[in-house]
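**Backbone description:**
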Amino acid sequence: MKERQTISFQFYYLLKQKPHTINELFEYVKAKGVDISKRSLYRHLQKIEGAIDTLTEVFETETGKNNQKTFLIRSVVKQEGREQSEWVDILDKLMIFENTIPSWLLAGSPVSRYIEDSSKKAPLKARMVALGSGSRDTFVSTRFGELIYNQKQRDNFTTILYGLQNNSCFHINRYNPLTSREYFRLPEIKTPLVPLKVWYHRGNYAISCHYPGKPDVYTIELDMIDSLSISGYQQSGVEVAVVLPDFLENSFGYHPPLKDKVYEIKLQFPPTPGGHIMMRQWHSGQAFRKMHNGNIIMTFKSAVTIELLGWIMVWMDNVKVLAPRILKTMIRERLGVMMQIIDDDLDSVNNRG
């Protein structure tokens, strides 16, 4: 029994020396004659992770082939010679540089290798914080429609990235009553969720997720969440592989569908701005056909979402909806309500009903 009580301390010093898999740790305790399950070993690792001083150490988990995890405790200052905040600043600038230079120009270059090496050396926590707080010192951004982050949202975003990095599930503790909307299908609180993908769209972040073993995908904007936590449930790569491709292929943006059906969307644009539209990515399955009169036909398969309606209306009288009929009907209804609000001096529609 006494040997069991010292396992956490032994694991701490082992992981400080070099990375270990759970199988290696299991063989270590087995050689010492300790009868303990691998599930219990994970609980010891969670205890260690929660006890270390995050200002000087970081508990890292790397996932390799066959979802095998390797655990390591890295000394932030001693090993790397930089403070946490310095690493975040470095990664901010590298991330911006990497995302603003064409990939074909960077491929195989010394700059590309420097970015990769620097990212690997940085502590995991610094990498996650940098992703959630990238500065924009090196280029101009209008920040049009961008979410104004507070510290709570930054912390929530870091937690979500941690879950994705470590194949861990999370659960939502509370929703933000000001921003959560009734037409959104929201997961229940305190229920494990498998994170699928972080979306960056028009200056905003959202997280797509689903219940373990269930196919329905929920997508939640970051400002809808007031509080969340990492769950003890571990996701599997099989669940992600099954769910994610179907969702991405049939979506326009990340909002939930207004109708549970995928339609063949067919739109007609004049030469201008049709040429502008052809040169840009709007949907993964988009296709264009140029007519003899110069008009451009755009087609793709998608569910009808609030984003699709909004995107079509952006083009005003420069677009004609050819199909499906339900899309024509929805746009006609929305435009009718907008005209009624103006003509009859009514209040705008509240999405919370």
DSSP finds 14 helices and twelve strands in the chain. The first strand starts at residue 20 and ends at 21. Residues 82-132 form one domain. The CA atoms of residues 61 and 251 lie 32 Å apart.
